[in-house]
Structure prediction request, 455 residues.
Amino acid sequence: MIKISREDRFHFIGIGGYGMSGIAQVLYELGYSVKGSDIKQSEITARLSNLGIPIYIGHKPENIDNSTIVVVSSAVHKDNPELIEAKRKSLPILQRGEMLAYLMSQKKSIGIAGAHGKTTVTSLIGIIMEVGGLSPTIIVGGEISDIGGTAKLGRGEFLVAETDESDGSFLKLSPNIEIITNVDNDHLDYYKNTDNIKNAFVQFISQTKDFVFVCGDDPFLSELKTDKEKITYGLDKDNIYSARNIELNGDGSIFEVEKKGKVIGSVKLPIPGVHNIRNSLGAISVADFLGIPFDAIVSGLKNFRGVNRRLQICNHIGETVIIEDYAHHPTEIKASLEAIKLLAKDKKVILIFQPHRYTRTYYLYKDMAKSLSIADYIFLLDIYPASELPIEGVDSGLILRSLSEINGNSKWVRDKDKLDEEILNIGIENSIIVFMGAGDIDCIRKQVVSRLKDS
Prediction:
């Protein structure tokens, strides 16, 4: 890591990304000179601009200007004109993970990692710590309703941050405390096989300074041997922290929390799904370990307003509920749809799914199809490429061929402008409409819902 001083002037290429924006905001609020650019305007760039951070729309060499350090994410291509200019000027170029490592080094740090649930667990820990009076700094890869964005600068000694395993950048971090939610077969474009994924998490755990919390329901994490103190949580009764007497409903759950087999209190969780009970147990275990009173834990969870695009109820058309969800991996898709089915009761679930990345589709299309089939009707959109180039023979038809064998009410809608017609053909009465994916499905949802309301 290069030496960073208060005189440095930071330029973020792709500042509108969830991960980049939070780091930029905290740096700016700490008093550093920060500016950045992004390919398009968004709610995030508007919020950063309102804070006072100069934002350039479009990537141009002159945007680098008098910057002394440039920050990039793995989504920034080598031919980006600003990146080329930074190299021409021989400026230090830091990866997003390196910048996060710097911020974490300035405080007692809590790093959350795992294939699924990171954003929710990070948010829950941050909010509980806030209610508990610890005033943490929070950096998360999603929009938290309770803090109005992706980051919050706290007055306390702790920094709580979501880490990113997708490109291996979490290995640049050495948190005081780590939470590992699960390990799964994602990001195979980078890791190539599951052994490499597991080895990366083993290394990450070895880098923690003090303690590691793991979801013991995950077979790999449960059996993992480490010289660090390992604290387990999950639904399995063998975990140090677990839940019993669970009552699930469409809005969330109520359950008792056990610690080493003894009930320590009852919790009401306002976010649905069994997977979110696990997520909350991760947050509860860390909060209890930090000495936060259980009544503050209960209050933090009860009043948690959720994370945008995580089983988020966005609109209503009459009595028809519109939900948006970020799920894009088969495990996440299954968990989210099971929660939505519980909410739906006797209503039909109409799913609009946008696959994310060609590589993920190539590796996981059969598992995607199996998870998607839980919905009553499925409309597939074209693959959202993110930063990837197309792969020959890999498109939404790959998913559809497997899906049609399980659920005949499936269709690939190649023209998204006709989605409202397809939905109306089914009928929106007595239904829940779900827009799911990690791409620009939020923009598509707004357009489709607007047309449905006008129809």
Q: What stands out?
A: The chain has a mean pLDDT of 93. The domain at 312-454 is CATH 3.90.190.20 (Protein-Tyrosine Phosphatase; Chain A).
